[in-house]
Design a protein that fits this description.
Keywords: ATP-binding, Cell membrane, Membrane, Nucleotide-binding, Transport. The protein has about 260 residues and is α/β, with parallel strands linked by helices. The protein has nine helices and ten strands. Helix 6 links the parallel strand 7 and strand 8. It starts with a strand and ends in a 6-residue tail after the last helix.
Length: about 260
Amino acid sequence: MTDSVLHFDRVAIELGGRQILSPVELTVKRGEFVCVIGPSGCGKTTLLRAAAGFVTPSGGSVRRKGAPITGPSREVAFVFQDYGRALLPWRTVQANVSLALEAANVPAAERPARIAHVLRTVGLQAHAQKFPAQLSGGMQQRVQIARCLAQRPDVMLMDEPFGALDAMTRETLQDELARLVREEGLTVMFVTHDLEEALYLGDRVIALRSNPTPELPSLAALIDVPLPQPRDQLSTKEHPEFLRLRRELYHYLGH
């Protein structure tokens, strides 16, 4: 497991007396893009929060690079679905990205170059002095991703980051994210309700089930996605293997 970045060792989580996750055994390897699907309330976000150190398992443990996770780390970036609340409205794009560097005590003299680099990376260099209210939803989500990249994480945890966006913006950001992951060598766990999004982005797809029991634990399926890279919004989604996997995984969404 030398290439293991995240390891969930029989992780179980109870919240409010309810079993949310029942022993999850999973390893996420370096550079891997793992998508998590499942019906509402099955524990997708809870699994992500345990990986971030926001939630302590009731049983088992989560390890990052072999060490137990005991709390949040700057090596792990978390991208929230609600980009509007994730950004400070009184700060410009540049100043919002700067938050990550300020929290890491990066010297003020080093910040402009790092901010400029990540804004170029996400295509926002021309909008550095704008405020969030002056940006579209897709651009606001890019700001949040840029802020995460600024902290130079090893792991990116993403909780339905494109769920509130229109279809065209969503597809554009999917392609930009895939490019960033390849270029930056990031390890990603990505929660989504959209099965096509999971198959388009993921190297593997994890399906969770609701109301787990000892006989039927949370992890319902773990599927490899052997589709060629880089992927294309048209040809990938017409690929016979894409269609086969979509059919195989469809019932895990609770339809």
